[in-house]
From TrEMBL, chains A, B:
Top-level enzyme category: hydrolase
Protein name: S-formylglutathione hydrolase
Keywords carried by this UniProt record: Cytoplasm, Hydrolase, Serine esterase
Gene3D superfamilies recorded: alpha/beta hydrolase
Cytoplasm listed as a keyword: yes
Listed InterPro entries: AB_hydrolase_fold, Esterase-like, S-formylglutathione_hydrol
Lineage start: Eukaryota, Fungi, Dikarya, Ascomycota, Saccharomycotina
Catalytically driven reaction(s): S-formylglutathione + H2O = formate + glutathione + H(+)
Predominant subcellular localization, coarse grouping: cytoplasm
Subcellular location field: Cytoplasm
Length: 289, 289
């Protein structure tokens, strides 16, 4: 379905578009923000897909990540999808902050209750990009990389491993690295996918990396704040599990895990390291500093 | 009064402090955010005072301006004060979004109803800086510049002209440049200062520049979005009036007014030009790119 332009805003020499459309994956209206730089060294503009974390709309990262500054500087576009269907009217979808609305967990739900709407995996990696390609002819959706934060960091890693060849590179900020074995993953996978844990592993980066057989095996950049309570206290994130899984796999790229002292889980953490992630991705997107 | 540290957050290699204190100027508790860079080329760290616009708390600019990126890069601190007393319990203070709470208008109120609390001029330019100097011994409050947005842009310009020698340089984003003759200024000056318009001129940049006699006469950098409805539709901002007043004055610095096509009044506009403003101020603060 075509997009409705809700707002067109100038920023950093380019344009930020706030769009909405009716999704056939989620059967709801979905919002998405797209930043298009004012210019790019490439004839068609490369794209970075940024997946947000629990509770976020497309606006949080758009307002607070400052990714657009580097997108404008280096010449790539950024796509900020929403994190779940909204207003699906499913009983229980608004009962907790870390499940349901704002927490689509980037899976295609198989449990009856959720399977009509909660299909954020197909939405983000297939429908949304296909539709955006029709809308933005200046953007090159065959030259795209992926990143994300927390739930979105997991979503970026899973999306990369599950779609060999689709993304040139992947990085993540404080990703839920081994969701099959943490409380957030157990809650969301259990509800959306059911109790068969082998189904969970099909979305778990720390399992997927072991069976990844794509030709494209770029280095994977990860930042994790050492003062992030979801990391050191709650063990929701476990990036070390991904590092260990990578060692136990044939994946040729390095997992570049940076545990940064003093940083928390917030957008102040994200904004502090988007420059590193932008510089990481442009190498793979054919851009330069 | 000493500050209570409400939060200490890592960002861009430095620390963001969310502070509160009891103000003797406003007779209320006041919040203020201070960003301290991780390092600076100067032994004592220069300071930029950022005054926010109508409705804002210290958090809006802290989260959305992107100023801390350049503060961290060049080595200066940033002070983000609040825009009014809050909870003063004055009848009518919460009746409109552009007067009272969130709209202190950086004056010392003389009308009885407001004069006990609405003293943001003395608070921002005197009390707050004096108290912060005691708290942050690494910061150099004798090497300070000032900027701001909208009401805060006016506040920065007025504060610069009214305190010769206090600020090394001044800039503004979409400032209310001639508040004596626009609806926002008339409403706020009228309520806080009374009906004698000669009192209003004591805070009006387009009047103050004509009688400024300070030795320090730096260039004044201003950005104004051409698509800002408060500019082109409502005539609240009128930066051309300041340019005209400067021509009609002995002020030696240039008023560098940049009317930028397509930009609005939002933080997307501010964040797009904080780099230019940071580069403007560091010249006067003894820092370099």
């Amino acid at each position: 379905m075509s997009f409705k332009v809700e707002a067109e805003i100038s920023q950093f020499g380019g344009k930020l578009y706030k769009l909405s459309h009716e999704s056939t994956s989620t059967n709801t209206k979905m919002d998405v923000n797209v930043y298009v730089p004012g210019s790019s060294p490439k004839t068609k503009i490369p794209v970075l897909l940024y997946l947000s974390g629990l509770t976020c709309t497309p606006n949080n990262a758009t307002e607070k990540s400052f990714l657009q500054y580097f997108a404008g500087k280096y010449g790539f576009a950024v796509v900020f999808p929403d994190t779940s269907p909204r207003g699906a009217n499913i009983e229980g979808e608004d009962d907790s902050w870390d499940f349901g609305t704002g927490a689509g967990f980037y899976v295609d739900a198989t449990e009856d209750k959720w399977s009509k709407n909660y299909n954020m995996y197909s939405y983000v990696h297939k429908e949304l990009l296909t539709e955006l390609e029709k809308h933005f002819s200046a953007l090159d959706f065959s030259n795209i990389s992926i990143t994300g934060h927390s739930m979105g960091g997991y979503g970026a890693l899973a999306g990369f491993f599950k779609n060999p060849g689709q993304y040139k590179s992947v990085s993540a900020f404080a990703p839920i690295s081994n969701p099959s074995s943490c409380p957030w993953g157990e809650k969301n996978f259990g509800n959306y996918l059911g109790s068969d844990k082998s189904k969970w592993e099909e979305y778990d980066p720390s399992h997927l990396i072991k069976k990844y057989a794509g030709a494209n095996q770029p280095d994977i950049l990860i930042h994790q704040g050492a003062a992030d309570p979801f990391y050191f206290r709650d063990h929701q994130l476990q990036p070390e599990n991904l590092v260990a899984a990578a060692k136990d796999s044939n994946y040729k790229g390095k997992v570049l895990l940076n545990v940064v002292e003093g940083y928390d889980h917030s957008y102040f953490f994200i904004s502090s390291f988007v420059e590193d992630h932008a510089k990481h991705h442009i190498k793979y997107l054919g851009l330069s500093e």
